[in-house]
Amino acid sequence: MNASVPLLEIDHLVVEIASMPALRGFSMRVATGAMVSLVGRNGAGKTTLMRSIMGHLKPAQGAVRFEGTDLSACPRHARAALGIGYMPEDRGLVPQLTVEENILLPLWVARHLDRKARLDFVYEVIGELAEMRHRKALSLSGGQQKLVALGRALGIGTKCLLLDEPFEGIAPALSERLSEVLASLRGKDLTLLISQSDMNHSRGLIDVEFTIERGANLAAG
């Protein structure tokens, strides 16, 4: 890949939800290997941006490029095969499946990856998931479910992780553990985009910070 090409590029993205503007020309460039924070208040457009990158929402204008390729023609399920892992704010686990089955879900559509090797990597980074691997997701606390959702994103996200409000609504001890896990990913050729309402949990982790307000770059306003 050309070093001058950002791994992820958002170019003047406009997204409407129920005919209301949710993103109003938001732009950002994320370099390979960077840890990037997207900061904004509730309703600022953070989740809309994440869902647009993942193909859950269709932009009215603008482009999302990954490794220089426009994702507009890329089917939603193909994001996993590109090496993008997604941790939604609501965790998005299947309650009746075990921890390990939830981690494996996106790997079932990425046949080019060695499932055992990816599982081993996840368990190496988040050791407590190995201990919980046979437990049903519905039996876990909210904080434990966040770790499973991170593990699922990490299993499939060989190049980029999109983490939507990972610190929201969890106990301080688990928040600290989550910070430790994210810090351990530095130097593993992974790009992280982390959305949050403030920088309290991750100030020491972040290389670049973008601020979003009312669906637009704050500096542009």
Q: Could you walk me through the main structural features you see in this protein, from its secondary elements to its overall organization?
A:
- This protein is α/β, with parallel strands linked by helices.
- It has a single domain, classed as P-loop containing nucleotide triphosphate hydrolases (Rossmann fold, 3-Layer(aba) Sandwich), CATH 3.40.50.300.
- It is 26% helix and 26% strand.
- It has 6 helices and 10 strands.
- Strand 4 (61-66) and strand 5 form a beta hairpin.
- Helix 3 (115-125) crosses helix 5 (142-156).
- The model has no long low-confidence stretch (mean pLDDT 90).
The secondary-structure class comes to: alpha/beta
Q: Briefly note the CATH topology name.
A: Rossmann fold
Strand content: 25-35%
User: How many whole angstroms does the radius of gyration measure?
Assistant: 17 Å
Estimate percent helicity. Answer: 25-40%
**String of helices and strands:** EEEHEEEHHHHEHEEE
Would you identify the CATH architecture? 3-Layer(aba) Sandwich
Strand order of the largest sheet: 6-7-8-3-9-10
Number of strands: 10
Domains counted in the coordinates: how many?
Answer: 1
Can you tell me the overall shape?
A: globular
Query: Kindly, what is the distance between the CA atoms of the first and last residues, rounded to a whole number of angstroms?
Result: 33 Å
CATH C-level category: Alpha Beta
Q: Main β-sheet: number of strands, strand sense, barrel status?
A: 6 strands, mixed
* Mean pLDDT value: 90
What are the low-pLDDT stretches, counting only 5+ consecutive residues below 50?
none
How many individual helices? 6
The CATH homologous superfamily is termed P-loop containing nucleotide triphosphate hydrolases
